[in-house]
Specification:
This protein is mainly α. The protein has 7 helices and no strands. The termini are far apart. It binds 2-acetamido-2-deoxy-beta-D-glucopyranose (NAG).
Length: 203
């Protein structure tokens, strides 16, 4: 009888402990999900004021765990994504300009574009560098510089797409290249909107 009781007690104890462990795990997961939800909600609502909110959201949501609900990290990440896209696009255009079957006019148009994109990359680099020194004491000056530089980067992107449009480059090449640069321009435009939003948040 004694043996029976202690057996059922230990079974009871195991069940009891198991329930506690499951409860803790479950609550931990629920808490994690809640945090994740508030992070993605923050990105969605911040992106709603940009010109391309869907692109803004899909490009940033991968970094939700890093950004959390911090507008400076959000803006910095948007700038980094834009820079990396501009660099890749510029490199791909250089490769395309060297590929066989490209006419002299196509090559010239691409080289012009690569030059303009190089300036855009420089403006974005400067902005990212300056953002890393953002403090309360230099907030207004930093944000004003970054607004100027990212606006210049956006102008470069537009110059490139317009210039390309006017050339007599073959249709499919033109469409492919334009599409890539338009993508960079849209990311740049979104980054600028987030920068403006951040700048205004302290006004
Ligand atoms: C952006 O990139 C720079 C340079 O790689 C890095 O120092 C910085 O931490 C990045 N910023 C964010 C918000 O990820």
């Amino acid at each position: 009888m004694d043996a029976m009781i202690s057996f059922s007690n230990s079974k009871c104890l195991v069940t009891f402990l198991l329930i506690i462990v499951l409860t803790i795990t479950n609550c931990g997961e629920a808490k994690g999900r809640e945090l994740q939800e508030s992070n993605t909600l923050f990105i969605r609502s911040s992106c709603s004021s940009t010109t391309y909110p869907k692109l803004c959201y899909t490009s940033l949501v991968k970094h939700a765990a890093f950004i959390q609900t911090n507008p400076v990290l959000l803006t910095g990440t948007a700038l980094n994504i834009t820079l990396s896209s501009a660099k890749t696009t510029s490199a791909d255009m250089t490769t395309m300009a060297r590929s066989r079957g490209m006419g002299a006019r196509e090559v010239a148009a691409m080289q012009d574009c690569v030059e303009v994109l190089a300036d855009s990359v420089e403006q974005l680099r400067k902005s990212i560098g300056e953002m890393s020194h953002l403090r309360t004491s230099n907030f207004e000056m930093t944000m004003s510089d970054v607004q100027t530089w990212v606006s210049a980067a956006l102008t470069d992107d537009t110059t490139c797409t317009d210039g390309f449009q006017e050339t007599a480059v073959a249709g499919d090449v033109k469409t492919a290249v334009r599409g890539r640069i338009v993508g960079v321009a849209q990311l740049t435009s979104n980054a600028l909107a987030l920068i403006n939003q951040l700048a205004n948040s302290h006004a």
